[in-house]
Design brief:
The complex is a heterodimer of chains A (313) and B (489). With 313 residues, chain A is mainly alpha-helical. Chain A is built from 16 helices and no strands. Chain B has 489 residues and is an alpha+beta fold. The chains are: A mainly alpha (313), B alpha+beta (489).
């Protein structure tokens, strides 16, 4: 398989997943913004959205204030934002077009329709209602795309590269969401787990479509360390870091088997996975959640680079 | 051929159909307007779906540039086809021999048949090729020869395309559409299939792999990329052959061997079916600003480690000036008279021809030797007196820059146009595959239609459309299938 084809498939999925994550980030912020300040804490949820979406510098180059109008505008379709939702869909479609015969018709149509819809929408005149509808639409595009890939692609290296992109991006996003929540959203003086961040945690769980499943697993109230446990260490939770790495490992093994060769990607993924398997949430909090997540994000990036070196060029 | 009446290949919209069209004419004449409308809608739906893919590949705006498709097929009898294909094979063999000679000993020049300056002044002439010998001496592995017809037995070659002829994907899709639309006709008539084309193309390409290649040579299709208007065809062919579709940046040259970058590391490439023009192939050899090419490709080619298909420099054989010599070229290399006629061409560089052209300028089409797309051209019968006179002055001034041809009464086939069924002019582009082992021609080719009334221009950019081309066995329809007629109609 051409390295360029693999590269297109990989980035195509990364960008679709990223578009979905951005929509979820805005969802959390929107939900928090509707709460009276006594419940939502003193932090600025719009600023934290900017931090999770890692576009702080770009944003403040264009706007003075992080408020709903500016942030949603910027994240959805900011003219100079190379990773806006619109840009993600556009780049995903470009990648798909370059490998049109390597993906299925179903996958292509979902992306092409989404792109056409983006061309039609007038983001400037969005009402709150339009915004909610739009965010649901983006999540649906990603769900449908993922479903189409899962149900229609041949299980060959084409499929595995598509999965790799999605999983790597997902792990990155989950880690970021958690990290920002712990260390940017919460004011210094407020102890983690104080009463007022209950709504923030539930909003976060809702944002990753995990509120109901959280209750199914834990049966108790929402506690911050349980949320962290859920999103980092629970293999049952498909967005958790450990679940992403379990699948990443499997996919990388399939590639190694097919090509008859192991490499740095397999080694790095295995390291991170076994690290996650040997962790429990208490140790994790003792050593520092933020430090752990920072390390994880760096390792995840390193894996991305290794995959790039090993397969994509 | 100077006759005024136009030959309709079906026998007209109303009159007795020619025998080869009997079944088809009967079907279309008996069909209710509703049924026709229905089939047309089906065809449109089919092509809109394909059309979406065209836009996908070709058009940034997603604007559908679907080439109009007519549901009434264009039919040739097997007997007609055999004669045509013999002529095509002969002509393309001669073309290949000519190109080899041009870049070799130039015997045809020494024999005084083709003037040397015609070759050396040709912008498509590539001096590099005098030092390169392609496998089996074949240069144009894929040739498209444009044919027109003026009567039951009168076919003419209008143009040779020896570089990178396109349109074969339309040929295959047209057939796909017709198979869905008219299963009853396919059941009754012995229509020769065309869907083996990708296999034959692959066999042809493999046969000309360099001798240093492995027993299973690696073939790729090379495209300028998704923004090229024929990208759809490039990916279609790669897909159907089961080979990689590469861009220049996917390839690299090391120690004069071409490799592609794969997920498993570099993989050697033996044959490149390139749909990239000569001057963009290798920035080290041709245009240094080309980003579509592969640096070092020409030196790998020269070292005999890769086959470029079609070979570099084949354009020297397909311009209008060389065209006029084709009867002599065929005779020179095959020892036989050309089976397929040229449109008679007067070369104004020759004094007698010049005198004839100037005397009959009102009846002729006069063209610049290197002109294309209708520029630098006079259509005598449609021109005013003043236009003729000023053009005649230009010809007198620089005779060797001009050729002249009679205006042909091109044959028609009925088409569904807004007013209903009406005759429209057609041409035919068969695709001739020349391998080291043999020449392969899929029966038929691409029929193009000038959809504008009276128009002779079949180009898709100027309102041209296409039809499926059927080559069918002469004689009675299959007896065993006669039941299906009632059920189908």
């Amino acid at each position: 398989m051409l390295a360029r084809t693999a590269d297109n498939l990989y980035w195509l999925s990364r960008y679709v997943e990223r578009a979905e994550s951005l929509a979820r980030i805005l969802d959390v912020a929107l939900r928090l913004a509707t709460l009276p300040s006594a419940y939502a804490g003193t932090s600025n949820e719009w600023e934290s959205a900017i931090d999770i979406a890692v576009c702080r510098d770009d944003f403040f180059r264009h706007y003075d204030v992080a408020n709903q109008a500016n942030v949603t505008q910027f994240i959805i379709a900011g003219p100079d934002n190379p990773s806006s939702i619109r840009a993600c869909i556009e780049v995903a479609r470009q990648n798909a077009r370059a490998v049109r015969t390597a993906i299925t018709t179903e996958m292509w149509e979902i992306l092409n329709d989404a792109w056409n819809e983006m061309q039609r929408l007038r983001f400037q005149s969005f009402t709150s209602k339009d915004l909610t509808k739009f965010l649901a639409f983006v999540r649906e595009v990603s769900l449908r795309f993922d479903g189409a890939a899962y149900r229609t692609m041949l299980r060959t290296d084409h499929y595995w590269f598509q999965r790799l992109g999605m999983l790597l991006e997902r792990a990155d996003n989950t880690a970021r969401l958690l990290d920002v929540k712990y260390h940017v959203v919460l004011p210094e003086t407020e102890p983690v787990g104080g009463g007022l961040d209950y709504f923030q945690w539930s909003a976060l769980l809702r944002a990753v479509s995990a509120l109901n499943s959280f209750h199914l697993i834990y049966r108790g109230g929402i506690k911050p360390w349980l949320v962290a446990d859920f999103l980092i260490l629970k293999p049952e939770q498909p967005r958790s870091l450990i679940s992403s790495y379990e699948t990443l490992n499997r996919v990388l093994d399939l590639l190694a088997e097919r090509y008859g060769r192991q490499g740095p990607s397999q080694r790095l993924a295995r390291q991170t996975y076994s690290q996650l398997q040997n962790l429990d949430i208490d140790t994790l909090f003792q050593t520092g959640l933020h430090e752990f997540l920072e390390q994880f994000i760096a390792d995840n990036n390193r894996l991305g680079l290794a995959i790039n070196d090993q397969y994509l060029q | 051929m100077a006759s005024e009446s136009v030959f309709d290949e079906m026998g007209g919209v109303e009159g007795d159909p020619r025998q080869i069209y009997a079944e088809v004419a009967q079907w279309f004449r008996q069909a209710s307007p509703d049924l026709i409308a229905n089939r047309k809608a089906e065809a449109e739906a089919f092509f809109r779906r394909i059309g979406i893919t065209f836009a996908v590949y070709g058009d940034e705006q997603g604007a559908e540039r679907i080439i109009p498709f007519d549901i009434l097929p264009r039919i040739l009898s097997n007997g007609e086809w055999i004669r045509l294909s013999e002529g095509l094979e002969q002509r393309v063999r001669a073309l290949n021999a000519f190109i080899g000679d041009v870049y070799g000993a130039r015997e045809i020049v020494r024999a005084g048949i083709v003037p040397e300056d015609l070759i050396l002044s040709n912008p498509a002439f590539r001096p590099e090729m005098t030092r390169i010998k392609p496998t089996a001496g074949i240069y144009s592995h894929i040739a498209g020869v444009d044919l027109v017809r003026t009567g039951p037995d009168e076919f003419y070659v209008l143009e040779d395309n020896a570089r990178t002829p396109s349109g074969v994907s339309y040929m295959m899709e047209n057939r796909e559409a017709m198979l869905r639309l008219f299963p009853e006709l396919f059941g009754k008539l012995r229509i020769k299939p065309v869907d083996q084309y990708p296999d034959e193309l692959l066999a042809t390409l493999r046969s000309v792999a360099p001798s240093s290649a492995s027993r299973e040579p690696t073939v790729v299709v090379m495209t300028p990329g998704p923004f090229n208007s024929a990208y759809y065809e490039h990916s279609f062919l790669a897909d159907r052959m089961g080979v990689e579709l590469v861009e220049g940046r996917d390839l690299f040259v090391r120690s004069n061997v071409v490799y592609m970058r794969t997920t498993e590391g570099p993989q050697r490439v033996d044959v490149i079916y390139r749909r990239v023009d000569d001057e963009f192939l290798d920035p080290l050899a041709f245009r240094p600003d080309s980003t579509l090419g592969v640096p070092g490709l020409m030196s790998a080619y020269k070292a005999g480690n890769v086959t470029i298909s079609n070979a570099v420099g084949t354009g020297v054989a397909d311009d209008k000036a060389v065209y006029s010599y084709m009867p002599e070229i065929v005779k020179f290399y095959t020892g036989k008279d050309a089976i397929l006629s040229n449109v008679p061409t007067w070369r104004c560089r020759e004094p007698e021809a010049l005198a004839h052209v100037l005397a009959h300028i009102g009846e002729l089409v006069v063209k610049e030797v290197n002109g294309s797309g209708g520029y630098g051209m006079l259509v005598g019968p449609h021109a005013t007196k003043a236009q003729r006179e000023s053009f005649a002055a230009k010809v007198r001034n620089n005779p060797s820059n001009y050729i002249a041809q009679p205006t042909l009464a091109l044959s028609t086939v009925p088409c569904y146009v807004e007013e209903g069924l009406a005759p429209r002019h057609v041409d035919l582009r068969p695709f001739v595959l020349s391998g080291a082992d043999k020449v392969r021609i899929v029966p038929g080719g691409l029929t193009r239609v000038a959809l504008k009334k009276g128009s002779l221009v079949v180009n898709s950019s100027q309102g041209g459309g296409t039809k499926d081309t059927w080559v069918i066995e002469d004689g009675a329809p299959r007896a065993s299938q006669s039941q299906s007629q009632k059920a189908g109609a």
